[in-house]
Amino acid sequence: MAQKVLVPCSSSSSCGNVQFSPSRVHTQAIAFGGGLSQSSSRKNKSLALKAVAAKGETSAPVTAKSGHEILLFDALREGLEEEMARDPTVCVMGEDVGHYGGSYKVTKGLAEKFGDLRVLDTPICENSFTGMGIGAAMTGLRTVVEGMNMGFLLLAYNQISNNAGMLHYTSGGQFKIPVVIRGPGGVGKQLGAEHSQRLESYFQSVPGLQMVACSTPYNAKGLMKAAIRSDNPVILYEHVLLYNLKERIPDEEYVLCLEEAELVRPGKDITILTYSRMRHFVLQAAKTLVERGYDPEIIDIRSLKPFDLFTIGNSIKKTHKVLIVEECMRTGGIGASLRAAIVDNFWDFLDGRPECLSSQDVPTPYAATLEDATVVQPAQIIVKVEQMLQGLI
Amino acid sequence: MLDFPGAKAAFTSRMEFISPNAAEAVPCFRILDDLGRALDGSDIPEIDSSLAVKMYHTMVRLQTFDSIFYEAQRQGRISFYLTNIGEEALNVASAAALTKDDVVFPQYREHGVLMWRGFTLDEFANQCFSNEDGHGKGRQMPIHYGSEKLNYFTISSPIATQLPHAVGAAYGLKMDRKNACAVTYFGDGGSSEGDFHAACNFAAVLEAPVLFVCRNNGYAISTPACEQYKGKHAIQLLAGRGYGMTSIRVDGNDALAVFKAVSAARKLAVEQSKPVLIEAMTYRVGHHSTSDDSTKYRSGEEIAHWRSVRDPVLRFRRWLESNAWWSVEDEKELRGAARKEVISAMNQAEKKNKPPLSELFTDVYDTLPRNLLEQEATLRDTVSKNPPSLAPH
């Protein structure tokens, strides 16, 4: 069976000897309409979004009157509900997801609507219900496994790595594992070390897995839908402090591309790469930086595995300076891998070392002052960017 | 009566601890005695001569394959092998009691189940030699078979990880109301893994149609059963009454008893959507694998006794002969033919090419991402600049 590389959606650009093109596109048209959603570039809100429209209608721009306001946890729920309504093989399993509606309300109301078999409350054993999700996925269902906190999924590491990541390969392509593993992670407000894990660090090395991180209601819904439709095992990272973020999202159906990064703010002075909660800290720092006359280009990388080197590369070619802002620890995090990838691929375009702001290599402490000191803050971002743009480092 | 949420029970004023040692061990169901004669009062299951002979053929073919391929490893022709010797009746009789729609999640000592379902000697040999015709595309160790067509899920080495998969598959079957169940095999050693306990508990709580078949063969590599678990009843009572599951202990070396018990268990599982535990007592005659020398931890006399006097294949043969369904001439002819077929399959498989380099990168995901395309290009470049021994074909 020949493996083919899908045709890129936008024109590829070449930089030097290396040809880069977007690594993946959808080939599936959305069930209700004709077009694909290419909303990776929400450069500014006045641009029309190519949301998928129902047959016969043209796409409508999101103005102040259209769309609906929603909180992030509800956007996740909306995406999940739409996919469950569209495809009867989609089901959810985890602790307290059914009758309770989920610890963070992502599955609220779904058990009432779809039955408590499709939204299944399981006994407490992460390795087992993750394994169950994998077994069900191998036999024709599309399972969404919820970890109550991402950190607990460390108990399911074997199933995620040796089975979800591996069985498609070791079976010679006979069995596929279309499972979505999701849950809240990241550093919260004084939740203690075991509830403040950044699992993207630990899982990024596992071949066969895809990883995406949502950061806004808009991309949360779009990524949830895309992850469910993917035939690969996908880990969807949500952040425990972003569930109540509010945003207006389209009424029309849309699905995002799992492998695409999001250009949040175009600029020419420096490329800032970030994801999840740190996106918002970067935006906060950017307000001050813009006031001071700087022009940062901000990219929410969204796809943690694989990296969208097309979008990232285009930016670096323009700005020649890179700062990564992450919540992972210094050692072995997403920032560490992203720096290596940037050095490997874009060395000739860099004016200086790719910089990275990360958490320290310590477990997250409980005391508020200590905890705040382990998370990169907007003030640090401002200082770092100024140092880089003034040539001080 | 006390009515806690956790249990409704009569109360007592006498403080009495429950001893872990009950009066007698759970009895073991058998139909044939050690010499293959039906015991008084036995209820022979309905097996006609063609089914019985087919079962015997498969057992002999399995035995022959095991002995020749074990030797092949000793001669350095394959790197690893693991036999089913002593468990042929358990493998084949349990498989014969299932339908082809029942999904099997094996541990690794169940080649006979796959053979019964129709995996050919060529297919077995191709996998062991990791050649380009193997279903696993050369990605797994020998004996890690998998066949989507035959509903036999690709083997993953870590112990008991397949048990939650079986529960997940059963969950899917229950949702589809299919006339089928999931069946999973594991050893006495596997019953110590966390996944075993969680899977049993989940299956019982969720009422999933899954058969848990424990091949209690007395040893987990060098660990004897008495060091694996405490108490005479461990696996049987623990998983059975302990987790709220119907269970039975059966003589795993009695093909008729295994056939009858598995048939009945399957009926219960499918009709009532409930899990059933079958603890099949047997003996691992061979070493754990070619990486083991079991004479280091058990006596040669013990092995010889079980290999000869307690051979389940011979026991079944005696029963066939007592029905005049088998003769000495038949035996000679079958053994000769089986040997020829296995050797021929081995020689063919050995001659074939190994999988091409492209198969190193396919099936990690559903399509090839950019990083793997780059890595493949780099590898091909390295190989082309090096001596022919590294050249791809």
TrEMBL record, chain A:
It catalyses: N(6)-[(R)-lipoyl]-L-lysyl-[protein] + pyruvate + H(+) = N(6)-[(R)-S(8)-acetyldihydrolipoyl]-L-lysyl-[protein] + CO2. InterPro entries: THDP-binding, Transketo_C/PFOR_II, Transketolase-like_Pyr-bd, Transketolase_C. Signal peptide: none annotated. Its EC number is 1.2.4.1. Coiled coil: none annotated. GO terms for molecular function: pyruvate dehydrogenase (acetyl-transferring) activity. It comes from the Eukaryota. One of its GO terms (biological process) is pyruvate decarboxylation to acetyl-CoA. Residues 70-245 form the Transketolase-like pyrimidine-binding domain. It is an enzyme of class 1 (oxidoreductase). Keywords: Oxidoreductase, Pyruvate, Thiamine pyrophosphate. Pfam families: Transket_pyr (PF02779), Transketolase_C (PF02780). CDD domains: TPP_PYR_E1-PDHc-beta_like. Its cofactor is thiamine diphosphate. The pyruvate dehydrogenase complex catalyzes the overall conversion of pyruvate to acetyl-CoA and CO(2). It contains multiple copies of three enzymatic components: pyruvate dehydrogenase (E1), dihydrolipoamide acetyltransferase (E2) and lipoamide dehydrogenase (E3). This is pyruvate dehydrogenase (acetyl-transferring). It comes from Selaginella moellendorffii.
Automatic annotation (TrEMBL), chain B:
GO terms for molecular function: branched-chain 2-oxo acid dehydrogenase activity; metal ion binding. GO terms for biological process: branched-chain amino acid catabolic process. Pfam families: E1_dh (PF00676). Residues 57-356 form the Dehydrogenase E1 component domain. Its cofactor is thiamine diphosphate. It comes from the Eukaryota. It catalyses: N(6)-[(R)-lipoyl]-L-lysyl-[protein] + 3-methyl-2-oxobutanoate + H(+) = N(6)-[(R)-S(8)-2-methylpropanoyldihydrolipoyl]-L-lysyl-[protein] + CO2. It is found in: Mitochondrion matrix. The keyword Flavoprotein does not apply. CDD domains: TPP_E1_PDC_ADC_BCADC. Its EC number is 1.2.4.4. Belongs to the BCKDHA family. This is 3-methyl-2-oxobutanoate dehydrogenase (2-methylpropanoyl-transferring). It comes from Selaginella moellendorffii (Spikemoss).
